[in-house]
Design brief:
Blueprint: E1 2-7, E2 27-28, E3 31-32, H1 35-43, E4 49-54, H2 58-65, E5 76-81, H3 87-92, H4 95-98, E6 103-107, E7 110-112, H5 117-124, E8 130-136, E9 144-149, E10 152-158, E11 167-175, H6 179-184, H7 196-205, E12 209-213, E13 218-220, H8 224-244
Parallel strand pairs: 1-4, 1-6, 4-5, 8-12
Antiparallel strand pairs: 2-3, 6-11, 7-13, 8-11, 9-10
Length: 264
């Protein structure tokens, strides 16, 4: 299985921070945002990785990441997206890289607490289809939302005004080799983009979409609020790790602040 990190877009919701840089290069606590999705793939056992980016700051990724040596990679591949065609349009650029292999696709602003290695291993056992990961959230209307009937997903709705469930489809997707043919059959949405939700629904219509529930916290970092939440979560995790390793020299773990999860 190969990995694809999608890190294009204008990052307009984070303007003016993104006026001079790509949003995925912004810091989340003590590291650039882009480190997190790459590390998620590597920790999941995926070491053949393509980074898709675009815009006028694309060269900054090469200067920052090089060939991925900091992540233990021998080589990190790159592709450039021209314009703003949506997530599925960016994924289309990975076809030569995939070369018929299954893919794990992660959005560049997705940050998770725990490893997805067990999910990667389960998906690897399947020969066909797609797999999405869900997480219960307080604001599902910002994301793709699964609609359940009798415990099964019957469709995924993109940013619904009245969400049918409290679950969000997080930005980690698994696809078989039919994904690129499916992308060619997508119709641009009202905002002129090829939507990843439509791609997922194409698998669902054929009964080839499975799902799992993410363990641990998750957030995107595409808005000022979610970027703040991501920074707090990562900082708290780092403090907790230091405490458990005995580096804090304190008799009790750091307490959670407002809007932060309690320390377990």
């Amino acid at each position: 299985m190969k990995g694809v990190v999608l890190a294009g877009g204008l990052g307009s919701r984070l303007f003016p921070l993104t006026k001079i840089t790509n949003k995925h290069l912004l810091p989340v606590y003590n590291e650039p945002m882009i480190y997190h999705p790459i590390r998620t793939l590597v920790d999941g056992g995926i070491r053949d990785i393509l980074l898709v980016t675009g815009g006028q700051n694309a060269g900054d990724f090469l200067r920052l990441l090089g060939n991925g040596e900091a992540f233990g990679l021998r080589q990190l591949h790159y592709a450039y997206q021209v314009g703003e065609g949506g997530i599925a349009d960016a994924l289309r650029l990975a076809e030569p890289f995939a070369d018929g292999d299954p893919l794990c696709v992660i959005l560049g602003d997705n940050i998770i607490e725990k490893s997805i290695r067990h999910i990667v291993e389960e998906v690897r056992k399947k020969s066909q289809g797609a797999h999405i990961i869900l997480k219960e959230v307080s604001d599902p209307g910002r994301f793709g939302v699964p609609v359940f009937e009798n415990g099964r997903i019957v469709r995924v709705e993109e940013k619904p005004e009245n969400p049918a469930s409290n679950f969000a489809v997080i930005g980690i997707y698994f696809y078989d080799s039919t994904v690129f043919e499916r992308i060619t059959q997508l119709v641009p949405s009202g905002r002129g983009e090829l939507e990843i939700t439509d791609l997922n629904n194409s698998y669902l219509a054929e009964g080839r979409l499975t799902h799992s529930i993410l363990d641990g916290w998750w957030t995107d970092a595409g808005t000022f609020e979610s970027l703040r939440v991501a920074t707090n979560l990562v900082a708290d995790s780092a403090a907790r790790k230091q405490f458990l390793e005995g580096k804090e020299g304190s008799c009790s773990p750091p307490s959670a602040g407002p809007g932060k999860p309690p320390v377990s």
